[in-house]
Structure formats: C-alpha cells, structure tokens
Amino acid sequence: MKLEQYGKRLSSPYLRKAMKIHSDVRKFMSDFLKNERDFVEIPPVIISAITDPLNHPTTKSQVQVYGYTYELTKSMIFHKQIAMHALDKIFSFSPNIRLEPTERKKTGRHLIEFTQIDVEQKNASREDVMNLAEDLVIYTIKKLLEKDSDILKSVGRDLKIPTKPFKRIAYAEALKNYGEDFETKLSKEAKEPFWLIDIEITEREFYDREDPTRPGILLDMDLIYPEGFGEASSGGEREYELDQIYKRIAKKGQTPEQFKWYIEFVKKFGLIPSAGFGIGIERFVRFVMGAKDVKDVTLFPKAPGEYYPI
Amino acid sequence: MKLEQYGKRLSSPYLRKAMKIHSDVRKFMSDFLKNERDFVEIPPVIISAITDPLNHPTTKSQVQVYGYTYELTKSMIFHKQIAMHALDKIFSFSPNIRLEPTERKKTGRHLIEFTQIDVEQKNASREDVMNLAEDLVIYTIKKLLEKDSDILKSVGRDLKIPTKPFKRIAYAEALKNYGEDFETKLSKEAKEPFWLIDIEITEREFYDREDPTRPGILLDMDLIYPEGFGEASSGGEREYELDQIYKRIAKKGQTPEQFKWYIEFVKKFGLIPSAGFGIGIERFVRFVMGAKDVKDVTLFPKAPGEYYPI
Question: Can you give the pTM of this predicted structure?
C-alpha cells in the first residue's frame, strides 16, 4: 500500500467509527470473560521456540534472538495448553503473525497481522466452550447495540442479536450437500451465525482432539458468520495424551522433532484436558460493521504479499 | 531457563496470584481510560518498517516478510503519533520486543518481551498527561485494593494509594544532588511514586519535544516507583515540526534515512501536537505485588541473553 493511501484513509470518518467499534468489542469481550465468567487475562506471547503449525500453508516468520531462532506467534494454542497448569480459565488478546499466500490479499478476510481473543478452559468439553462462545458473542453484540447504535445506524448496518443455541452442521453433511466450497455457500445462505462441527481429522492440526468413540472425527468446531462473512472462530477439545499426540503428528506427515519442546514439556509435566477457541477481532469488527473488507476496519492493515511503509 | 524450572513454576500459588493481579491491572487501566476518559483502544502493531530507535542499545529484531525486512515493535511511539490523524485519545496494550544487553538479565526489571499500555492524547501538554497518568495509577491501585486485598495481604504487601500530585524532581537537580545513579538512589529513598522531569536533550530520543523556551531541556518525564522499584513510565510532549525533527535527529548522530517512511509521512501529512506515555504492565504488577523480580510475576518470562524452550 502506498503512503498516500495510508495517510488519507486515517482521516476517514468510517475508519474512526470502525476504531470505536473495535475498542468496544475488546471492552465487552473482556468485560464478559472477566466480570461474568471469572476468566484471567494472560499476556500475549510474541516470540517463542514453539508456535501453532497451522493447517494451511504460511511462510515461517522467524527472528534471531541472542543467536537462537524463535518464531513469531501464529496462535497461542500450545501456550494456552501449558498455562492450564497455572490457571483454570484464561484468555489473551493475542496478536498473530501469519504470512499467508499472496493470493489471499483480496479475499477481504485476510491480514498478516491481526489479534484474536484466544480462550481456554480446563476440563471443559466442546459443548461447554460452544456455550461459552455463544454467550460471549451474544453479550458483545447486545452491548454494542446499546452503546453504538448511532454508529451502526450511520453506516446502514442492521445488526441482530443471534438466537441461542446457534445451529450446528456436521462437516460430512455440509461437504455432501454443498461440495468443497461448503463454508462460503453456507455462510452466504445463513441469516445467523452457525457452527460447523465434527471436522475430519485430515483437515485439522494434531492438537484438536479425536473423538474416542468416532475415530477420524474431531471434537472441534468452527463458528461461521452469516451473510457471507465467513469464518469467525476455530476451536475444540485438545489432545492431551502423549500416545495420541504422537499418532496425530505422524498422521499429518509431521515429526515430533518439529515440536520438540512441546513434546518434552508433555513428557515431563503432562497436559490437562481442556477446550477453547479463538475469535479474530478484526473479522468480528468487520461483521459488526457489515464492511466489505477487513482492511477497511483496521487502523494499520497489512494484507498478504504487500509492503507497508508504516 | 531450563524446561524443568519452567514447568515447576507454573503451578506455584505465587505465580497464580500474580496472574490474577496482572489480569486486574489490565482491566482497571482499560476501565479507567475507556469508561472514565473516553479513550479508544487501538490494536497493537507487532511488525513494521518503522519502530522506536530507543535511546539505549538493543539488538535489532528483524523479520523477513514477502522479501521485505520489518522490525519488531520496540514501542509504538511513531504509530501513536500517526494515529492522531484518526483519533484524539488512544491507548494500546502494546507488546514490545527489546533485545536488551545480556548483562541486564539480573536487574530484576528487564524482560525482552513485555507489554506496555501506551497512551497518547492530541493537543495535550505534558501537564495534561502527567495529570492523566497520576489519575490512572491512583484509580488502578484503589480498585486493586478493593478487589484483591486478600491476595496482597497473603503476600505481605502493604500497598498505599499514592498522593496526588506526585512530587516532581528536575533532571539537573537530581543529577547534581545524587550523581549519575540518581534514579536508583531516589527510587530507594522515596515512599511514593514521583516524576523526573526536564530531562536533558542528549539523554532521550528525537521525538521528545524540546522546550521552546529552554533549549536543551525536554518537555518529557519519567515516572519512578518508590521503594527501589525503579522506572514505571516514560513520556512527554512530542516533536511535530519537520525542522525540529531534522535538527534533533542530527543531534543524535542519526540520519533521516533511518526513519525514511516516518519522515515521508511527516512531509506529506504533517504531525499533530500530542503528548503521551507508556507504563510497563509487568513492572506495574511487580510493584503492586512487591516482587523481587519482574520474572516472578510473569507467566512466560524471557530475560535478556537466555534461551527459553516455551
């Protein structure tokens, strides 16, 4: 993006409105988790020897630190699991760096630098955290409608409070009825946020837990926005048994050496069963504002493949 | 740090208490700025073509992004100034990466990854933001004493609400009376937080504003904790005129090319006068808990010079 564009967009009234919504989204999500549900906010991790491998291709972003190589955080999944040794219910506003393929620069949904609110709860089931996520989304939208109705009206956005429980659609069923592109089609058709559940083991990373009663099916879920806004959130129960972790890593064609310190930690201290999810803040703001592109609601946006001077 | 230590410290009751204080510090600071003073929270910037050069030596932490070199944020000073084109009162919980010299690993005050709450206000004077920072600190401590008195009692911490206005000590006076090591000595002696003001131009970066009526003296300030806890915050009015920025860069022995895109932005769009400050969250938690070392109150601490597996 050119410096000219960057400078001019800063004084646009639309961006100013989006930033107020952004600030309030952080406020209400934090208020809900802290005041209503007793979650503890932990600081984000930016550089680490371990990070989420992600299921889709991104370029590694590495940094040299006193002669050692660290990666920039793609998600805090491993740190969330490890933090369960200290705390029962946690969340973080976690900045992620994901160097997505350049062809994703015009999807309207991809930034290489964004923040997700990353939530994890000890001994929780998938049902527990789906319930929690629904309450979090409903609380936040209700509060936004109370506080920011002027802004939403001025941008012509008729935002509705979603109905609980959100609809659940099984992955296999969605694939059968809509083909490979089911997520986009279902999102366009939908009038309310909905869940995609029971995702196939080949489609996800090793840390999403396999259903012990249905091999090959994961105890995970994606939250999808209606009106074509696409994915809101990913989450699920987590693998916590070393045998299962080894099996799942092998199944992805990965090696335990790629996750050396994580594996060492599990060997020495074990993992505690947990479930959780992450909700991208910028995409949430895009949905709330009804914006065409996530870049339009972001103060300092960085799209895949481009250079930004600021 | 060894994996063994890392794992064991996670289940320590002290760390759990510190994390609850940490979470509440973020909550009350955010509540104060958003609910009481109408500030807008902006997302942090993690990678950028421009970042704070800092006045003390740190190793550059760089990352390759689609063939371009970005730096990891050392502070959001330039982005805060630029954001004044969009918003009047802003703050961010901004993670900073500062690869400090290895000899700082045992100061008890240095982490290479930490978060500061970074605040900036358009057309504000130094007095305005000192007033704001005092109110922010007092509000947060008051609320912590209400909500977390059990935790503070259990760790033997007798935390007092500071008296407003905080004492002000001029840099030249401090240097004359206490010598080079004035900050440490004054901090040990003090019973309440205090300000160091009017810092000499050679001691700070170019963006802190020179007093037009007292050449060589800056309109900036440091907030210092009592009881030997050292520096809490840095801040001041900012340079916003291009001539003055050039002059100040030259005075530091730096070149405009080092800040190319920042200078280009100022040429094209100008800067708006502003003042602000940053308060390190981990150091604030250390002060609140009365902890010996900032690492003791941090979930995933990283000290200078060391390798961390997690």
Answer: 0.98
